[in-house]
Amino acid sequence: MMKFNVLFRPQIFHKYKLVFNKTMFIRSTDQPNAESITRPNMSQPYTKFFVLDFEAICDNGAHLLNPQEIIEFPCILVELNRAKGGFEVVSIFHSYVKPIIHTVLTEYCTQLTGITQDMVSNSPLFDDVFFNFCNWHKDHTNSMGKEKSIIVTSGNWDIGNMFIEQCKLFPSTIKIPEFMCTWINIKKLFALTMGQYPLGIKSMLKTTNSKQFGNIHSGIDDCVNIITIMNQLSQRGCVFQAINKIISV
After folding, report:
1. 46 touches 150 (CB < 8 A)
2. Which pTM does this prediction carry?
3. Catalytic (active site) residue 88
4. Catalytic option among 72, 79, 102, 217
5. Can you list the positions of beta strands (E) in 97-216?
6. pLDDT for 213-240, tens place per residue?
7. 217 is catalytic
8. Catalytic one of 55, 69, 72, 79
9. Cα(199)–Cα(156) distance, rounded to whole angstroms?
10. Tens digit of each residue's pLDDT (9 = 90 or more) over 93-129
11. Helix (H, G, I), strand (E, B) or coil at 93
């Protein structure tokens, strides 16, 4: 199996830190941060956005599973249409993932995510899924020229926590690629634009009077919902800039 030596860099998984811009948020639904809403003279630094939302194996109450493992890997590539001021879907990557430690899903996990045992048992392991994802990402960024792309998530858990922990389970086959080290936390941009820090995707949809697509905690459905939120923020003049970064120490 070919590996991407150009894409991947050496990474010591137990030695990393998450870097983020510290911002004071205005927690008012009536008085949003006007400076962040409209910036007519500022151009968007990115043109393509890889919207990602992992789902992981989980349990309820005192029976929390450790470590958690990714069981759904969805990502939707959208492109900013500057003329329309919105985001258009270009391509979709989606795969379920077979866990290697907690191989049997809990009833709670299935009820929360809609992911059944058959869906993960018949799926590839994470390193194979991630290899395919990197191929897909490379196919859509190879000929970009001066265009730039960025990962988008709702919160920092997906990349800053879950992805890092998942990679630790495959130290011999996975190295963290550069493009996974920087991402946009849409929650923070939402707070800067709307004036309140959101609890999650559902609250962001409610605040912007947007219709929910599918089920919350379905990874692929949540990717669609994040895109809806991005379109709402775009209409309010939000500049989609990188917020977080993983660096080795």
Report:
1. yes
2. 0.83
3. no
4. 217
5. 149-153, 182-185
6. 999 999 999 999 999 999 999 999 999 9
7. yes
8. 55
9. 13
10. 999 999 999 999 999 999 999 999 999 999 999 999 9
11. strand
